[in-house]
């Protein structure tokens, strides 16, 4: 029989197998929630608050974790604390342990219980798939939400929020139990069968559409698969004119104290600094930075964008402002500082760290202080040009398929992108033209500068979106820049409007970077020596000239090293030549020959 009062036993489960079902007094529940919120606000001691919370949860027969969500805030990314109290008695009663649905666990059929867990989780609003099952968890105090992969313990705890696991023995005995770990493991092993909504990542920026319209979303957005929170509301011109777009560009050129390498500068006597001359069009480095800023603003709404790379000289680059510029971009775009990691250690360790960072799904990712390095990373190559991409799970011999929506940024002195990363990054150089850039004096300390950027975020974000909207509404009249594979939409949204307003094309730098790539320089040296010693004649490995062998195998590691390297070059087109590997399929025991063929522009 149901009672009308609220007492310690109300809603508790009958351990013999029956259920004593309780009814919640809704007004009493709401009053208790407000009382506890007031205590929390007034600064009650943590121990006392936990005691009050436990007692209240026990009186109402609601799990402590669920009751805490009512008082402190749910895992839903809401800005303010506190989940809305139940709107009806029926809704409130569904929270009581005694009326939670049963989840039958048959000792002889644990896979059926794992399937039941799957069905229960698929009906939730806070669980998603991101290569693995994850949930969005919010912290107190306005901290950003986090994407947390489900572990065995998470599965056990979360299922008890929704169900009452009941052990059913072959003899028909029913006992309330804790969900066995084996069932949780079987659920996590159901790759491809979780039936959860996909989660692309977290977002704190307005969502953009190709027609120039803007959406402000809170919570999960089905269109982009992003979890949105704390998105600012902006006032933008509905139909910006070209003059308004030019004014917006000038407002974004507020970073004139930064030493863009090729910028025209003038000395400011009051500040005793060289400043970018805003009366002159942006140079290539400042233009690349501005394109990077537009990239950050548009990143959540684009399938793919290139990464951003800030570079300075090896010995006189420290303190030039690389990291500060990247952090300013991220603050304007997302209102948060980027998650930073370093590239120290071996290549395998870097790949693991990148995979873990991408799985976290933050808005941005900063690889900081990659000094005197040729940056290589198959993980970055995949994340920047594939959607979804596959990354290795940290600590496991497994990979996960996920949407990498982070804005990827890198800083370093004497940093160079290599291989396929060349076309995946927009790069700019800084040169303070002094021996020790860190000793320069600025009007604001770094932390005050970033605090000022944070304060100005709505205005600066609005200026960037004014340029973007003007570009989208006048897209048919804008001359496109150089094509960049995989990034045609990015080019139209982020780069081409800036080109129309007088900025330089940062894509032009890719050719310069390619020429400076040490691996390409090595290939140029090899092809030149090969052409001199072998011409276009097919040549066996054993007949290679010693000068060619010196380039191919400088450490003299043997014929297998030579063969593997030559095989890897098959099909390479470089400097007007094509390197070919020729193998007779009818005589597989005969070694392959290699040939360097001169090609025409049409063949190239």
Describe the structure.
Strands 16-17-21-15-23 form a 5-stranded parallel beta sheet, with helices on both faces. A 4-stranded mixed beta sheet has the order 4-3-2-7, with no helix packed on it. A 4-stranded antiparallel beta sheet has the order 24-27-26-25, covered by helices on one side. The chain is of the alpha/beta class and 604 residues long. Helix 1 (26-41) runs antiparallel to helix 2 and helix 14 packs across helix 15. Strand 13 and strand 14 form a beta hairpin. It contains 19 helices and 27 strands. The chain folds into 4 domains: 26-74, no CATH class; 101-198, no CATH class; 242-514, no CATH class; 517-598.
Give a brief outline of the structure.
This protein is α/β, with parallel strands linked by helices. The protein has 19 helices and 27 strands. The termini are far apart.
Key words describing this protein structure:
19 helices; five-stranded parallel sheet; globular; alpha/beta; four-stranded mixed sheet; disordered N terminus; 27 strands; 4 domains; 604 residues
Any chance you could write out the topology, listing elements then pairs?
Elements: H1 26-41, H2 46-60, H3 64-72, H4 89-93, E1 102-106, H5 110-122, E2 127-129, E3 133-137, E4 146-149, H6 152-162, E5 164-168, E6 174-176, H7 181-188, E7 197-198, E8 201-203, E9 207-208, E10 214-215, E11 219-221, E12 226-228, H8 242-252, E13 265-268, E14 273-276, H9 284-298, E15 307-312, H10 322-334, E16 339-342, H11 347-360, E17 364-368, E18 373-375, H12 378-385, E19 389-392, E20 399-402, E21 407-413, E22 415-417, E23 425-430, H13 446-455, H14 457-473, H15 488-500, H16 509-516, H17 518-534, E24 539-540, H18 546-552, H19 559-568, E25 573-574, E26 577-582, E27 593-598
Parallel strand pairs: 1-5, 2-7, 8-12, 15-21, 15-23, 16-17, 17-21, 18-22
Antiparallel strand pairs: 2-3, 3-4, 5-6, 9-10, 11-12, 13-14, 19-20, 24-27, 25-26, 26-27
